[in-house]
Amino acid sequence: MKLFVTGGAGFIGSQFIRFMLRKNPDTQIVNFDKLTYAGNLDNLKECEGNPRYAFVRGDIANAAQVRKALSGGGFDAIVNFAAETHVDRSIGSPSDFLNTDIFGTFCLLEAVREFGIPRYIQISTDEVYGTVPVGSCTETAPLNPSNPYSASKAGGDLLALSYFRTYRTPVLITRASNNYGPNQYPEKFIPLATTNALDNRPIPLYGDGMQIRDWLFVEDHCRAIQTVLMKGKEGEIYNIGGDQERPNREIAEMILALLDKPNELVRHVADRPGHDTRYSLDCSKLKKLGWHPTIPVEEGIRRTVEWYRDNRWWWEKIKSGEFKQYYQEHYGHRLDESTTPDKEDEQ
Ligand SMILES: NC(=O)c1ccc[n+]([C@@H]2O[C@H](COP(=O)([O-])OP(=O)(O)OC[C@H]3O[C@@H](n4cnc5c(N)ncnc54)[C@H](O)[C@@H]3O)[C@@H](O)[C@H]2O)c1
Questions:
Q1: Domains along the chain with CATH numbers
Q2: Among 188, 172, 228, CA closest to 10
Q3: Protein residues whose CB sits closer than 6 Å to any atom of ligand 1
Q4: Is the pTM of this model over 0.90?
Q5: What is the per-residue pLDDT across 167-212, written as a single tens digit (0 to 9) for each?
């Protein structure tokens, strides 16, 4: 199988590439990535020199670049991971999100039509359903996004489905819950908490920290995408969850316990506007295709924390670059006004 993977230098895309090359000796992969602040070729060091792997730098929202990279390639499928992905950045500066997550998806769908590519997998998110106060969402639940990131992803999903209905473009959509694991950019909650704790720095936690996420270890996600790629039906959506719902505060405390650090490192900061309080997915549709999540959150967090502990070379250079300014702008004033759990209890 010859795959065109977009956004393969990011967290999940790079895991997927490494996973597919390892598990499928006949698979060839072209990784097409713009290398934004979140794209990192360090994630793909193990693929360097592999004759079944090639990297092309390019932007999915640039139709000419997409066409050039696809022409003559004879690809069996496109798997689209490329996106702007951080909710907080989407609140401060939404335009890149609309450009990549919607217009970029459009450019790829057009290319699928033009080149007659037999399969297109749109990697999406449970955030398109918005807050789920009770119960769990199936794939037919209404979309109710709360921020420019999830709204852009919902836009990409709807466009992809419209291409299936209008042009019979062979589109499949996956909607996964919160991923975690090695190589995740430290702006996201688990790597931020882990790397801050390793440096004895405060861990900012939004609001009361009781927002519930369903945590999915990234390897389980990659196996699920492989299942959809091989066995999924065109025009269908597949939810992918870890069956591991936990409040953020519990995850932070789990990380601190593993690193033998005090809970006092947690600082409650002003909440994110429009913050969804709970996500929850019904994944029975994908389970019928034979996939199940296998990594309990306690084990996944242990593996993740150990990876960040042992790979300072990977994240220290990220945290000393562009990230530093982002962190200061985003959390600086919030941390100045923060409360520790003890202070909060006294109020
Ligand atoms: N991380 C999660 O918890 C999660 C959960 C569900 C779904 N998803 C989806 O999975 C996908 C990957 O997420 P991630 O966490 O690995 O993201 P990431 O931010 O780590 O990586 C995104 C990658 O896309 C690339 N990219 C961005 N804009 C591009 C463009 N215009 N053209 C080409 N490449 C571009 C970046 O350089 C980077 O390598 C996204 O579509 C995201 O919406 C993520």
A1: 2-181+216-240 (3.40.50.720), 189-212+246-278+305-346 (3.90.25.10)
A2: 188
A3: 6-7, 9-13, 33-36, 38-39, 59-61, 81-85, 100, 104, 123, 125, 153, 176, 178-179, 185
A4: yes
A5: 999 999 999 999 999 999 999 999 999 999 999 999 999 999 999 9
